[in-house]
Specification:
- The chain has 667 residues and is α/β, with parallel strands linked by helices.
- The chain has 21 helices and 36 strands.
- Strands 5-4-16-15-17-18-19 form a seven-stranded mixed β-sheet, sandwiched between helices. A five-stranded parallel β-sheet has the order 7-6-8-11-12, sandwiched between helices.
- Strand 6, helix 7 and strand 7 form a beta-alpha-beta unit.
- It is globular and about 70 Å long.
Length: 667
């Protein structure tokens, strides 16, 4: 239930009259004769009249002046929807559509460095040079170009150059282990590898040239290595031992000798391959198209986030997280994209706010784990840094505890709006998120995103209101995957989203949608806690346990056992210098019982050294659950795709010890 004490922010006249979405509503009223009194009416139209809504987005953002199309949605079935047949759009070309000489295109900052601005003209020149180099290497539309790159200016240039050629881009961050990178890039089969010599993180420098040599040796399709010399001198010799791989130094590439040319590609031409986490099997290569990404990111960033041309848009991310692509999408709006390569907690836990100050960020995106960490550290950014330009904070990655929602609004510049967004790699966008037309309340995502037919369903496929159910999308989106890599008959794609409810996208999260359209996401449905038939979200337990000052981190797992019993342990990382003794166990149990219910109290509270996570910060609930059910640690996660991988072996030992104890007791 919403209360006045939950209210953090309310829209004023500027948001209600001058925001992008308000301007869109005025345009729809004037041009289409459709009048909507509030966001709820606008969303209802956008999610039911797909042709009307997406054609309006198309015209509002001027795409009708770029290309014609035969119809908006020629085939509406999922999977297999066909959007805008006949249209021809190139993502890179659209990224330059709002170029200006009054603002930079990029601001780049590396750990320990100084912010560097790249003008739109300079960005275009660099993209033209790299695109020309790729064409000289024989790269043609449909070929794959892979990056092994941190969050640098060169990474954006390489993506745009690849898209300009019509080739397909994919990238892995160099903080991934080599086996994890190969598990992805071997599937892609790139002909060109664009690789950085290293990166800096947490005050340390990492030389990745030996890893690049391993990658080249493990990627038989690679014929060219484009070496990005960002830390060390221009390479005098080859990084790879392969005689059949030609190396090119990024800084020595010749000028294009002509204007930037863009391949003329159809709407559904593949743009990039994003990768699933790989924590539940072989990473899935998710192929998304030029046109679908263009219209989706114009809508999501423009009408949802309210991104404007004069914004400086920063997202603290690695290149392996889909929010990096979501960040680059800011170029579609003529915004200045801010790139930071390094640790957000260096030189201190408040490092992200120092980065925002130094780069003049107006929009900053952060993971939930970082925000909870700075709250625990009692950081006061507004008192320490000049953040007067900051107007909104995007939060994603996992559920945010209620106290952290309040911390953002209490400790940052007055009037800053917290935008909690839920989406995913699968669509490279937002399913439920923010709007400047609605208030922000503690613990609640404001509403389903425009154009997203979001619903909560019970196991029989019946819609729920005010009750927790499966998050589903009942109508197609333009940025849904074209296909998976190496999935010629689409079997893996269908199994991933459409097996539970045929023809309806099941996202894999528990969600509650209230009558006011506000949304609460309670964690992954495949890792749900289920005691005596009562479903419980792990996020509820974390919201209580992780707020205790004696607890640094935690992981709760619900395990269905072969004998029909249910085992629910809570693994706790104690704060530094704090023992997990009986007193702390009692305090944890008391807090869970008092704040939640007796059903939420774990069977066992066990100390651990660290919580393993994906490299995008999500706790490994499902892989650990599988280990506790008897799976080998090597079966549940690819090496190099998680933090603290040594903990998987620890959980395997824990499972064996517990099974041994149970067997001994039975004897």
């Amino acid at each position: 239930m919403n209360t006045d004490t939950d209210l953090l922010w309310s829209p004023g006249r500027p948001e209600l009259e001058d925001s992008n979405v308000a301007s869109f509503m005025d345009w729809v009223s004037e041009v289409r004769g459709l009048r909507f009194s509030d966001y709820a009416e606008l969303w209802e139209w956008s999610s039911t009249d797909l042709a009307g809504f997406w054609s309006a987005v198309w015209e509002f953002y001027g795409l009708d002046a770029v290309t014609a199309y035969e119809e908006v949605l020629a085939e509406a079935s999922m999977p297999g929807a066909v959007w805008f047949p006949g249209a021809r759009l190139n993502f890179a070309e659209r990224c330059f559509a709002r170029a200006t000489d009054t603002r930079p295109a990029l601001v780049s900052l590396t750990e320990g460095g100084t912010p560097e601005e790249t003008s739109w003209d300079e960005l275009r020149r660099q993209v033209a040079d790299v695109a020309a180099a790729l064409r000289r290497m024989g790269v043609e539309p449909g070929d794959r170009v892979a990056g092994y790159l941190p969050n640098l200016r060169q990474t954006v240039v390489a993506l745009l150059a690849t898209a300009a050629v019509g080739a397909v881009w994919t990238v892995c961050s160099p903080d991934f282990g080599t086996p994890s990178v190969l598990a992805r890039l071997r599937q892609a089969g790139p002909t060109v590898l664009v690789a950085a010599d290293g990166y800096r993180y947490g005050g340390k420098t990492y030389d990745k040239r030996p890893d690049v040599a391993e990658l080249a040796a493990g990627l038989p399709t690679v014929r060219h290595l484009l070496a990005v010399d960002s830390l060390f001198p221009v390479p005098a010799g080859p990084w790879s031992d392969r005689a059949d791989v030609e190396q090119h130094a990024w800084s020595a590439l010749p000028a294009a000798g002509g204007p930037l040319e863009f391949a003329d590609v159809p709407f559904d031409h593949p743009l990039w391959i994003l990768w699933s986490s790989g924590t539940t099997g072989i990473p899935k290569g998710i192929v998304q198209g030029h046109g679908g990404i263009v219209v989706e990111l114009l809508k999501a960033l423009g009408l949802g986030v309210d991104l404007r041309p004069d914004d400086r848009y920063l997202f603290l991310t690695s290149t392996s997280w889909m929010v990096w692509n979501f960040l680059v999408g800011g170029l579609l709006h003529g915004s200045t994209v801010v790139l930071y390569d390094g640790s957000p907690t260096h030189p201190g836990v408040d490092g992200a706010w120092q980065i925002a100050e130094r780069t003049g960020a107006t929009v900053i995106g952060l993971g939930a784990a970082y925000l909870t960490a700075v709250e625990k550290a009692d950081v006061r950014p507004a008192e320490t840094f000049r953040l007067d330009r900051l107007r909104t904070v995007l939060q994603t990655g996992s559920t945010l505890p209620p106290s952290t929602w309040r911390w953002v609004h209490d400790r940052l510049t007055p009037g800053v709006r917290l935008q909690s967004i839920c989406g995913g790699t699968d669509v490279c966008s937002v399913l439920a998120g923010s709007t400047p037309l609605l208030p922000v309340r503690v613990g609640r995502i404001q509403a389903p995103a425009l154009g997203v037919a979001l619903a909560s369903w019970d196991p029989r496929g019946r819609p729920l209101t005010g009750e927790q159910g499966e998050l589903v999308v009942t109508a197609p989106l333009p940025s849904m995957p074209l296909r998976f890599v190496g999935d010629p008959d689409g079997a893996r794609y269908r199994a991933s989203y459409f097996e539970t409810y045929p023809g309806v996208w099941r996202h894999g999260d528990w969600v509650t949608i209230d009558p006011d359209l506000s949304v609460v996401v309670a964690g992954r449905s495949d890792s749900t806690l289920n005691r005596s038939g009562v479903r419980m979200g792990s996020a509820d337990i974390y919201a209580v346990v992780d707020q205790l000052p004696e607890v640094a981190d935690s992981l709760v797992i619900g395990v269905e056992q072969e004998d029909g019993a249910y085992f629910m342990p809570l693994f706790v990382v104690p704060a530094e210098g704090t023992p997990l003794d009986d007193g702390l166990r009692r305090r944890i149990t008391t807090a869970i019982r008092g704040r939640l219910s007796p059903r939420h109290v774990p069977d066992l509270i066990v100390p651990i050294a660290a919580v393993p996570r994906t490299l995008t910060g999500k706790k490994l609930e499902v892989p650990v659950k599988r280990i506790l059910q008897g799976a080998r640690s090597s079966e549940v996660s690819s090496e190099g795709s998680v933090t603290h991988p040594e903990m998987l072996a620890w959980f395997a030992d824990f499972a064996r010890d517990r099974a041994g104890s149970a067997s001994a007791s039975a004897d």
